[in-house]
Each structure stands twice: as structure tokens, then as C-alpha cells.
């Protein structure tokens, strides 16, 4: 007669293998666990809302934690890191790292990836800062000028700053002659432009810097 609780005819030899398989599954689950979600937020997430469940990876309503900030810091330094390399650097396994990167993209913390080009190797030797004074400071005129400036490839950055309808532009050109043609033939002919004032960069001390993240959770960047 079989012992109580064991079905008649059960193969005893399968028990150690089944136990080993369960142990392996447990170890795999622990490796894929996200300490910021599975352990910290799992109790409030409810059944079936663990990491990987749903589009938000089980992180709905959560704020950035030290792992998220570490990911952002690493991606700012090198956006070409593989998921495995990124996981190793931040101290998580690959699966929760991938889920976190996806969540950061979905939530708009990471808005894109792009290549950083050397402007001098591409022949763009002139970098200028141009203040554009507007003729009229009203909504319709300002929007028209914004759209016109946004469409110019020579303008790589544009800010509407405090003052009497003033824009601050960062402009690139191949040389001074090309920059002069751009100002006279294009900028001064845009709608609602009253005047322009230019300063030239004599040398780049720092450009395309990473965003400061020391105010967010996690260890501070060494200075």
C-alpha cells in the first residue's frame, strides 16, 4: 500500500529529479527578480502583477530608484551598451535591467538615442550664438517665428528667453562667409525679426554634456 498522500503506482525515482527542477526554477526566478519591484513593490502590486506583467513591467505609479538612476547615468555615458553590459554595471541581472530600460523609455525619461558627430571633421568650423529680437511680442507672431526657426537646419538649438520677445540661437556654419549669407539672406528675412546680435565661440570648453543626476536617488557621481 502506498503511503498516505502519495498516489498508487507513483514513480519514486522521479522525486529527486522533480525536486531538482523546482530548485532550478527557484534559482532562475531569484536571478530575474527586480529588487525595486518584486521585493519592494510586489506586496502592493497584487497577484499576477510582478515584473514583466503588463506594459509597465509591474512598476505603475513607482518613482525612480537607484537602479533607474544608474541606468540613466550609464546610458548617458554610452548608449551603445549591450543589455548584458548594462546589467553588469548596475548590479542587476539581464531581465530586470531590460524591463527597466523599457519602462524608462515608455515613461519618457529616455526620449531617444543618437550619434554625436564631430562638427569640425564635417567642415562646420563656425559656432555662433545669435540673439534674435522680435518686432512684435504677441502669441501669433511669436509662434510664426518659432516655426520658422525650428525649420532651419543651421539652427541646432533655440531658446525663448526672458526679455522683449527674444530668442537665443546656436548656429553652425562652414565659415564666416556662409554664416554671413545665412544671417543676411535667411535670419533677417524671417517673419517678425527686428534685429540680430551675434557672438562667436572661440573654443569649446564643454559641449553636449550629460544631464546632472546627483539630486536623484542613488550614489553621487565622483567629483
From TrEMBL:
From the UniProt entry, list the residue stretches annotated as the region Disordered: 1-40
What GO molecular function annotations does the UniProt record carry, in alphabetical order? Answer: sequence-specific DNA binding
Record's CDD domains? HTH_ARSR (cd00090)
- Please list the residue ranges annotated as the HTH asnC-type domain: 64-125
The record's GO CC annotations read: cytosol
Family matches, as Gene3D superfamilies:
3.30.70.920, Winged helix-like DNA-binding domain superfamily/Winged helix DNA-binding domain
Which residue intervals are annotated with compositional bias (Low complexity) in the record? 18-38
Kindly list the biological process annotations in GO that this record carries: regulation of DNA-templated transcription; response to amino acid
Kindly state which keywords UniProt assigns to this record, in alphabetical order.
Answer: DNA-binding, Transcription, Transcription regulation
Look up the domain of life of the source.
Bacteria
Q: Which Pfam families match?
A: AsnC_trans_reg (PF01037), HTH_24 (PF13412)
Can you name this protein? Transcriptional regulator, AsnC family
| Lineage, broadest ranks | Bacteria, Pseudomonadati, Pseudomonadota, Betaproteobacteria, Burkholderiales
Amino acid at each position: 500500500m502506498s503511503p498516505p498522500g502519495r498516489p498508487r503506482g507513483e514513480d519514486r525515482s522521479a522525486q529527486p529529479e522533480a525536486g531538482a527542477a523546482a530548485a532550478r526554477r527557484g534559482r532562475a526566478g531569484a536571478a530575474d527578480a527586480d529588487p525595486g519591484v518584486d521585493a519592494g513593490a510586489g506586496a502592493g502590486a497584487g497577484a499576477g502583477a510582478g515584473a514583466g506583467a503588463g506594459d509597465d513591467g509591474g512598476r505603475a505609479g513607482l518613482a525612480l530608484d537607484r537602479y533607474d538612476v544608474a541606468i540613466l547615468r550609464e546610458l548617458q555615458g554610452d548608449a551603445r551598451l549591450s543589455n548584458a553590459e548594462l546589467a553588469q554595471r548596475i548590479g542587476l541581472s539581464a531581465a530586470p535591467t531590460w524591463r527597466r530600460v523599457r519602462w524608462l523609455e515608455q515613461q519618457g525619461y529616455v526620449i531617444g538615442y543618437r550619434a554625436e558627430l564631430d562638427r569640425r571633421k564635417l567642415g562646420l568650423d563656425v559656432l555662433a550664438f545669435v540673439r534674435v529680437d522680435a518686432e512684435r511680442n504677441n502669441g501669433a507672431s511669436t509662434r510664426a517665428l518659432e516655426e520658422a526657426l525650428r525649420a532651419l537646419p543651421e539652427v541646432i538649438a533655440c531658446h525663448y528667453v526672458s526679455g522683449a520677445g527674444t530668442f537665443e540661437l546656436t548656429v553652425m556654419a562652414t565659415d564666416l562667409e556662409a554664416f554671413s549669407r545665412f544671417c543676411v539672406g535667411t535670419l533677417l528675412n524671417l517673419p517678425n525679426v527686428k534685429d540680430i546680435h551675434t557672438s562667436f565661440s572661440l573654443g569649446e570648453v564643454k559641449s553636449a554634456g550629460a544631464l546632472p543626476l546627483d539630486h536623484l536617488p542613488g550614489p553621487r557621481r565622483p567629483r
